[in-house]
Amino acid sequence: MNDVMKLMQEHSSVRSYSEKKISNELLEELIVSGQSAASSSFIQAYSVIRVVDPVKRQIIANAAGGQSWIIDAPEFMVLCADMQRINYASLKNEEGELKGYTEHFIAATVDTALMAQNILLAAESTGLGGVFIGGIRNNPTIVAETLELPQHVFPAFGLCLGWPAHKNAVKPRMPVSVIMHQDSYNIDAVPADVDAYDEAFSAYYGSRGSNVKSSNWSAPTTRAIQGKRREHMLEFLQKRGFLKC
Ligand SMILES: Cc1cc2nc3c(=O)[nH]c(=O)nc-3n(C[C@H](O)[C@H](O)[C@H](O)COP(=O)(O)O)c2cc1C
Fold this sequence. Notes:
Elements: H1 3-9, H2 24-35, E1 46-50, H3 54-63, H4 69-72, E2 75-82, H5 84-92, H6 102-125, E3 129-133, H7 140-146, E4 153-162, H8 176-179, H9 190-207, H10 218-227, H11 233-239
Antiparallel strand pairs: 1-2, 2-4, 3-4
Bound molecules: flavin mononucleotide (FMN).
Flavin mononucleotide is lined by residues 11-13, 15, 67, 131-135, 157, 168, 171.
């Protein structure tokens, strides 16, 4: 394993930060590193909204279900999937306005996620820590209005960054043999794989130095995704010009 892989495998989300600021120079380098990710057809379909206004931070923290780290983090940004520029480019080149194809939604969302992960990894390489904030999609209209987002742009998720005051233990991922298939998908393995991971995860939670829990992986995860159906998302995205066809 080399140093980059070691850094990647030491990732854990950080939600508690020291007071120390992140310099503008470093922040810009992180964004440039984010932009260096690959991009579908090179559309670069993302924007980063850096939120410094404490009133806006508070509004977004409330919209995200009261996540206090959005207020406390030295930096908080909202990562937007953004087809606004490519829409302009499309009109400029007489290709017509974008119609809101599902495929374009996927391309923009994937571009945004790749860029965001590059930002976080670059940040972690300097000793910074951070956490993504999907909670902003609890109330995406409030977030979009607060940030004055135009059509063809939607707030995908947030990112808090800062110098860690506390780091959580690394959560063990599923074994490679579970998530990697060869030549065809091995559906027969799913029940045994999930059961085994549940057992391994219970052992991990029970043996942690701090924040010991009595839980497996599947129970809280299932509850979490059932609690985050966000049924408003389809209409919200369609109003912004996505997922129309
Ligand atoms: C797209 C995305 C959205 C997330 N949203 C939140 C969030 O709103 N609040 C939060 O505290 N953590 C959030 N997380 C962090 C996950 O809970 C975390 O990555 C996961 O539990 C694994 O833990 P680890 O990152 O420490 O390894 C999010 C992660 C991703 C990738």
